[in-house]
Amino acid sequence: MLKTRISFTICLVFLFFSIAGAQPVLTLKGAVEKATQNYGTIKAKNNYALASQSLVEQAKRDYLPNLNFGFQQAYGTVNGQNGPLYGFGGLSAASSGLPLPDQNWNAAFGALYLTNVNWDFFTFGRAKQKVTVAKAVAERDNKDLQQEIFQQQVKVTAVYLNLLAAHQISFSYKRNLDRADTLRRIVQARAMNGLVAGVDSSLANADFSNAKILLTRAIDAEQQLKNDLTQLLGTGSEAAEFTVDTSMLYKAPVIEQFALDSTRHPLLQLSKSRIAVSDEQARLIKKSYYPAFSVVGLIQTRGSGFESGYSLDQHNYNKGYFDGIKPTRTNYLVGLGATWNITQVFRLSKQYEAQKFISRGLSEENTLVVQQVKLQQQLAATKSRNAISVYQEAPVQVRAASDAYLQKTVLYRNGLTNLVDVAQAAYTLVRAETDRDVAINNIWQALLLEAAAAGDYSVFQNQLQ
Questions:
Q1: Is 135 helix (H, G, I), strand (E, B) or coil?
Q2: Are the beta carbons of 200 and 187 closer than 8 angstroms?
Q3: Secondary element (H or E) of residue 12
Q4: What mean pLDDT comes out for the span 330-353?
Q5: Which positions make up the signal peptide (predicted)?
């Protein structure tokens, strides 16, 4: 029964790796390209950037004059009365006519046709500043998009490298399982022949079970990382069936020191663009202190069913619809004016002060970001040196551990050592192989950290050629 369970477990392990081998290979470049094209946040921020570009054009068109066309046709009486009134909320009538001695209910059609143009042609640069603010907002949203793309590239690359390391560790634990199975069979054969104590067989079975547990955990970790990568790709669960490209682990990248270029780092550029938007908004508030000079032009035509002699003869009107709406009188008007809300200056002064404080706050945040990026560069340089050192030592450790394991197994077969020493040598070999498998991966990770600190993903991407 025990042999059946063991054989079944081994079959499942081999089935996992055979399925993995049949899956399509997803390269790191392909993963990054898919993520930048399909990830939802990038798509959203791209639309935000496009919206900001449209608002720039809208701000430019705000300077155009207002051109209004209107007409109305109405039916009613024209009783007039001397006295003051105003159209409060549009609730009073605008009927016109001379005051008559008595009320009458004579009614006819009337019409009004007008075209109106009014244009704030000079506002002390306010219209131009609105365009400048809109451009600053568009630039900020574009920088936000570029920063999001950069972050997604780094995230996808980091998860891909972790998945690559987990994939290699799974193979290491598979080799460890094979060694444990071979040793278990040898111990069982020797125990059946009475060459070793039966307890050695139990210890070998325990080591074999431990090797299976390690492999299962490694496979589980690999599946979790694959799921994380699939989420970052933004292509849905249908793209979850793939295997990673291990060819990049055959050659270690060349790591160089890169100076911080604040004109290219996406995070720093986004921080500066936020300051620029706040500064431009403060200038717009400042320009709102001043008056606006306007020009207005109007042409108006009216028609009425009441004739010109209606004040003398109250029967001199026509109830016909077309007679009432036909234009009979026209007026025009052109004018120049200025409006200046004096109290607005006192209100806006505090808004301007608040906006300046916002700019100072954003400047402090930018200073903090610069400090964090510089510290990240220092950390990246340290990790690069450490990763290279480990990479150089890993082969030495593997050779020594392999020799020790070989020696212990030979001694055990000849009855010159016990199974505990063999198990310890096997553990040392597994640890050495794991360190070797992740050593070159750690160099790639260090290079990614260098690229992230420099704000230039091409630093990493160029090494993939």
A1: helix
A2: yes
A3: helix 2-22
A4: 90
A5: 1-22
In sequence order, what are the beta bridge partners of 453? none
Both structure tokens of 87: 């159209």
Report whether pLDDT(354) > 90.
yes
What SS3 state is found at 41? helix
Per residue in 401-449, pLDDT (tens digit) is: 888 888 888 887 777 777 778 778 888 888 888 888 788 889 999 999 9
| Residue pair 383/444 in contact by the 8 Å Cβ criterion | no
Give buried/exposed letters for 362-377 (b at 16+ CB in 10 A, else e).
bbeebeebbeebeebb
Pairing mode of beta strands 243-244, 25-26: parallel
Residue 308, classed as helix, strand or coil, is coil
Token couple for 359: 């700019």
Q: Average pLDDT, stretch 10-24?
A: 52
HSE-CB for 25 with a 13 A CA cutoff: 9
Sign of CA dihedral 348, 351, 353, 356: negative
Q: What is the largest CA-CA distance in the chain?
A: 142
Numbered ranges of CATH 1.20.1600.10 in the chain:
19-63+136-290+342-464
CA-wise closest residue to 374 among 261, 254, 270: 261
User: What letter would DSSP give residue 97?
Assistant: -
Q: Which two tokens stand for residue 61?
A: 């068109």
The CATH number of the domain covering residues in 19-63+136-290+342-464? 1.20.1600.10
CB 234 within 8 A of CB 38: yes
Residue 81 near residue 93 (C-beta atoms within 8 A):
no
Bridge partners of 302? 112, 329
pLDDT the model gives residue 2: 39
Give dist(CA 229, CA 227) in Å, integer: 5
